[in-house]
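User: Predict structure, ligand 2-acetamido-2-deoxy-beta-D-glucopyranose.
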Amino acid sequence: MANILPMILFVILNLILFFFQLSTSIDTITQFQSLNDGNTLVSNDGTFELGFFTPGSSTNRYVGIWYKNIPKRRIVWVANRDDPIKDNNSNSTMLIMSKEGNLELLTNNNQTLVWSTNITTQSLSTTSSHVAQLLDNGNFVIKANNNTDQQSNNFLWQGFDFPCDTLLAGMKHGWDLKTGLNRQLTSWKNWDDPSSGDLTWGIVLHSNPEIVLKKGSVEIHRSGPWNGVGFSGAPMEIITSSVIATTPVINSNEVYFTYSLVNKSMVSITYLNQTLSLHERVIWSPEDNTWSDIQSVPKNDCDVYNRCGPYGNCIHNPSPICQCLDGFEPKSPQNWYASNWTQGCVRKGEETWNCGVNDRFRTFSGLKLPDTTHTWVDANMTLENLDVPYGLVIL
Ligand SMILES: *[C@@H]1O[C@H](CO)[C@@H](O)[C@H](O)[C@H]1NC(C)=O
Ligand SMILES: *[C@@H]1O[C@H](CO)[C@@H](O)[C@H](O)[C@H]1NC(C)=O
Ligand SMILES: *[C@@H]1O[C@H](CO)[C@@H](O)[C@H](O)[C@H]1NC(C)=O
Ligand SMILES: *[C@@H]1O[C@H](CO)[C@@H](O)[C@H](O)[C@H]1NC(C)=O
Ligand SMILES: *[C@@H]1O[C@H](CO)[C@@H](O)[C@H](O)[C@H]1NC(C)=O
Ligand SMILES: *[C@@H]1O[C@H](CO)[C@@H](O)[C@H](O)[C@H]1NC(C)=O
Ligand SMILES: *[C@@H]1O[C@H](CO)[C@@H](O)[C@H](O)[C@H]1NC(C)=O
Ligand SMILES: *[C@@H]1O[C@H](CO)[C@@H](O)[C@H](O)[C@H]1NC(C)=O
Ligand SMILES: *[C@@H]1O[C@H](CO)[C@@H](O)[C@H](O)[C@H]1NC(C)=O
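Assistant: Predicted complex:
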């Protein structure tokens, strides 16, 4: 009889713990709490959820992040995209914070390490331990446990530095020049497999940075060089629209773009669509219960990089869409008239590559400015000291 009281207390305690766990969602993993398959983290404001998922018809398990309250689930970030959990006994799979302060994804009761973060020992603090937290903006971070500042960039590691196929508001799309970190998007292989596909979208570091979409090593689309206001070859809506406002940061430490949502209660993301080889901005419309496509790039056939080859001009409406510039003719008429435009055009007739007496500068409007890969910028130069006789000035 005497040991019934502690037992009742024990049961009550367990019930309290049980209801406590049911009624509060947690957003952190500490060294004393692991996240098991079946449980999730929820960001403090309830927007994002992190947990285990199986994509499409796959049998692999992954750790990912999605919008908690959107029924048509889109995975916006995957931790172990290239290291799937093959073991389907979910009971023995867990995400833990190791003693060394790294996130580790363990599987099998023999504790196989599937994936981990890679914080070097130098950045480990000996006096404070680490926690992992899912922030309200969808960033999953590791920080010292006494760091309570959500906005601080004082993170030891952050998921936003390793984007998958989705660009969320607040993510940096581009380079940390000090560390050489290039944050670019890489598509899923297909909708059953989040591992890295061959479609990438990132900043190419020329003296005038551009954002380039590539399939393997082939350029699909370029934004045109940044001219201080916008991308000269991209529609202005890419920068500012009724939905987003984009901010460029170009200095000696960093070259990146980031965007914010004009209306913070809207949900809108940009992701890479591997099937169609494009990047697409979608917006969640709660009324229709769907994600709607509000912008796709490339937006048409002529928007595709190098569509008509060298000295070719792409015009969207007529058919065929490719024409040679005045004074040029198809390099290979046979291919050209069979709608294979890749070889482009060459100077007509007898004329040489040197400038002749009849050569003039001509104005062409509505064309994207040339590729700036092999150009340089003199940032000291102003319009006043423009005394260079021949030159291209990009205004
Ligand atoms: C786990 O995988 C094994 C072998 O692939 C299969 O036989 C089993 O049915 C699977 N179990 C579950 C719960 O999916
Ligand atoms: C996993 O755990 C559940 C509940 O604890 C149990 O019913 C199930 O048999 C376990 N599965 C395996 C494969 O151990
Ligand atoms: C862990 O489990 C896997 C699958 O059951 C097995 O292939 C592997 O040999 C085990 N490793 C160790 C170290 O026991
Ligand atoms: C961790 O970083 C080191 C040094 O940069 C690198 O050699 C190693 O491959 C990385 N490991 C993982 C799992 O990323
Ligand atoms: C956290 O603790 C470390 C070590 O005690 C200290 O150096 C650091 O200033 C603290 N950070 C904050 C934000 O309190
Ligand atoms: C912001 O978006 C929410 C949800 O779509 C909508 O209810 C609200 O009216 C919008 N606010 C403004 C200022 O447009
Ligand atoms: C890719 O784009 C097409 C056309 O907009 C759409 O039907 C398809 O669902 C998209 N893929 C995903 C995963 O959204
Ligand atoms: C177009 O022409 C080029 C050059 O002759 C050739 O390499 C390429 O395969 C052709 N493309 C198609 C789709 O026929
Ligand atoms: C620009 O001006 C600074 C200061 O006069 C000079 O150090 C630098 O070399 C100049 N840069 C170029 C590209 O001329």
